[in-house]
Amino acid sequence: MSETPDLSTIFFYIITRGLPNTLVLTIFGLVLGFLLGLALSLMSVYGSIELRWVASGYEKLLRGIPILILIYIFRWGMPGLFWYFESSLDRGLASVVLALALRSGAYQSQIFRGAILSVNPGQMDAGFALGMTRFQAFRYIVMPQALRLAVPGWSNEYAVVIKDSSFALDVGIFEMTKAANQLTVNFPQLLTMTMVVAAIIYFLFTFPVTKFFGDRQTKKLKDLGMGGN
Amino acid sequence: MSEPILRLVDIWKSYEDLEVLKGISFDVAEKQVKVVFGPSGSGKSTLLRCINMLDPPDKGEIFLSGQSFMDPSVKLNKMREKIGMVFQHFNLFAHLKAIDNVSIGLRRVKGFSKEEAHAKALDALKSVKLTEWAEHYPAQLSGGQQQRVGIARALAMEPDLILFDEPTSALDPELIGEVLQVMLDIAKAGTTMLVVTHEMGFARAVASEMIFLDEGVVVERGTPKHFFESPKSERVKHFLKQIDVLYGRHEELLEPFDKEVNK
Amino acid sequence: MIFQTSSNPIEDFLAILSHWDKIFTGFVMTMWLYAWALLIGFVIGLMLAILRHYGGRIISPIATGYIEIVRGTPMLVQLWLIYSLLLNPLGRGVFYTSFEFFGKDITLVFFNARIIICIITLSLNSSAYQAEYIRGSILSVSTGQMTAAQSLGMSKIESIRHIVLPQALRRVIPSWSNEAAYLPKYTVIVSIIGVADIFNQAKNIGFQTLLYFPVYIFVAIIFIITITLISKALDIVHKRTAIPGL
């Protein structure tokens, strides 16, 4: 670019150069966090006292560490961690994904635990009375409702992770915020504009989701009579 | 005389320091309807929850068609398939339509195919007169309708015995009738039932035996005729009077008003 | 080698501790930023919550809009945005103090352009989240209270001030404590624009000692301990100010 980029150039630059990595980080972070969070929540609701203690300890730990520090621990504190990735970029991505996933798991665990606990326990009794095993009762009665109840909290978590993905730029990942910043290398006066555009892009990715899956879903669930004790 | 469907032998249960059931024993034979009644806190609900081992008793034995629940080789959930339960607060599965509430036990526990389960569920809903509401969710049904679905859910499993835990206590007065009617119908059709309830009209109509429970002990038992004509213990008499007061039938309640009005 | 440490953790720990002056100044900076952000965030958040709930058809959506935008965009973007706007206007002035302590020169910087930018960003960000907590607790104070107050002759403002807010603020303590305890975490973002908080100091120590892994773990532990202490302290405050039934 030899001439000062205009609004649409900025917009497309950020999206085309930055969005792929942002999405990779967000999706992998959320999915791995989901698996971890589900396991932890089952441990804390149905597990023995030792398992509950482990789950609780993990949550406290991961909620107290700033995400940036966690990223640094995996990227620069343990540089050999992802030795099987050859490119430095891949190792960087993997480190950030790991940090995001571990953190997200701790928060998603709370979301699922709350959802599981808010399913009316009388329904479990009804399941047992029909002859279901604990596992069947969980699978057919509690889990379907808990997953639906977790959606609002989960949509919020998605917003958090996609925002946190911006920290990846500090370890050399070229995602959206970095793209916005990169434009100012040659045109420092554009920082305000690029940041406003970046903000708008992020907002478009978060607000519709949290609004739709948050408020509307909560209302739908209330109408179905789920999640009230 | 064949084996009774249900036999309770000397059931004891405590919660913390409180003894809730103190040595309960009785039988329920096939096609019989037995009504357990008594003041609150007498242990009635606890008794039902002990029978299908939702809360196992501390002491005593429970036999279903001769098979002991206490036998360690017995699989609890298999036994529970043969006992149906209808709950005071319905406990319908909120995320399933009425028809699915009734069919899920058939599909997931008994292993019927989707089509077979659906057909049997529809039959059960027919017997409680709710086929039009099959595709509705519990939240869209009235209390009386929800409880009838609960009864259909228990019926569909074709159990040896159905337990009813105060099935009408959580219902608005005008909805009680429809549920009691269904219960009467299935009693007359020969279902073996053990019912905890205050509904004396129901007991009078179909109970083979009534059992009065107070403070964890069987105080008196007998036919409905026995209870309504010549109850023996004072506690029974007192309780029956309070039920009458509840339903506004007692003469003592009516008298003073008459006197005032006629002055 | 996965970890980059010498084989003796005690040695590493002592090596890190030898840079205690950096740790100290970094920690002071982090806490300094945190305290300002929490305080200013609370004041702005309280205003936002009141405007959003009692504001009326024009003001309420504006307050809501602000909150949604701040919550829907990354803090880093917000930081750079404010940086771009305020760096030049704020000039090059510095407020600091220097002293000697146990043989080391310690300089505590209190205000400069970057620090002010960070405080503003952290405050504005925190205010949006605090506003949501406070709004929740305002909602939980039943409208009947407002009606009763007004029927006694109080104006709307007086009712808010004397009846609704005291209850709402008392009720918000548990969720507010959550925000207050975890806010220190978010101050690390300032390291990206070169403010010498504890994370940047940790990076320095790592650079000088090559003990990257231990120093990052060390700082992580400092955060966990700080957060736990703040949580516990707020718990005690909550218990001491308990009103039955509230």
Structural key phrases:
heterotrimer; A: 229 residues; mainly alpha; MetI-like fold; 8 helices; globular; B: 263 residues; alpha/beta; 6-stranded mixed sheet; 4-stranded antiparallel sheet; 10 helices; 41% helix; disordered C terminus
Brief rundown of the structure:
The complex is a heterotrimer of chains A (229), B (263) and C (246). Chain B has 263 residues and is of the alpha/beta class.
Q: Classify the helix fraction of chain B into a percent range.
A: 40-55%
What would CATH call the class of the domain at 27-197 in chain C?
A: Mainly Alpha
Structural class of chain C comes to mainly alpha
Structural class of chain B: alpha/beta
Largest sheet of chain C: 2 strands, antiparallel
Reading side by side through the largest sheet of chain B, how are the strands ordered? Answer: 6-7-8-3-9-10
The span between the termini of chain B is 63 Å
Coarse shape of chain B: globular
Helix and strand pattern of chain C: HHHHEEHHHHH
Let me know the CATH homologous superfamily of the domain at 27-197 in chain C.
MetI-like
Description:
The complex is a heterotrimer of chains A (229), B (263) and C (246). Chain A is built from eight helices and no strands. Chain A is mostly helical. Chain B has 263 residues and is α/β, with parallel strands linked by helices. Chain B has a domain at 83-158. Helices cover 41% and strands 22% of the residues of chain B. In chain B, the strands form two sheets. Chain B has a six-stranded mixed β-sheet with strand order 6-7-8-3-9-10, sandwiched between helices. Chain B has a four-stranded antiparallel β-sheet with strand order 2-1-4-5, with helices on one face. In chain B, strand 4 and strand 5 form a beta hairpin. Chain C is mainly α and 246 residues long. Chain C has helices at residues 9-17, 20-54, 59-72, 75-90, 113-140, 143-151, 156-186, 198-209, 212-240; strands at 94-101, 104-112. In chain C, helix 2 packs across helix 5 (113-140), helix 3 crosses helix 5 (113-140) and helix 8 runs antiparallel to helix 9 (212-240). Chains in contact: A-B, A-C. The A-B interface holds A 120, 122-123, 125-133, 136, 140-141, 144-145, 148, 223-226 and B 52, 54, 77-85, 87, 89, 91-95, 104-105, 108-110, 137-139, 150, 153-154, 157.
List strands and helices in order, with pairings.
The complex is a heterotrimer of chains A (229), B (263) and C (246).
Chain A: H1 7-46, H2 49-64, H3 67-77, H4 88-117, H5 121-129, H6 134-164, H7 176-182, H8 191-223
Helix pairs in contact in A: 1-2, 1-4, 1-6, 1-7, 1-8, 2-4, 3-4, 4-6, 5-6, 6-8, 7-8
Chain B: E1 6-15, E2 18-28, E3 33-37, H1 44-51, E4 59-64, E5 67-68, H2 76-80, E6 83-86, H3 98-109, H4 114-127, H5 143-156, E7 161-165, H6 173-188, E8 193-196, H7 200-206, E9 209-214, E10 217-222, H8 224-229, H9 234-246, H10 251-262
Parallel strand pairs in B: 3-8, 3-9, 6-7, 7-8
Antiparallel strand pairs in B: 1-2, 1-4, 4-5, 9-10
Chain C: H1 9-17, H2 20-54, H3 59-72, H4 75-90, E1 94-101, E2 104-112, H5 113-140, H6 143-151, H7 156-186, H8 198-209, H9 212-240
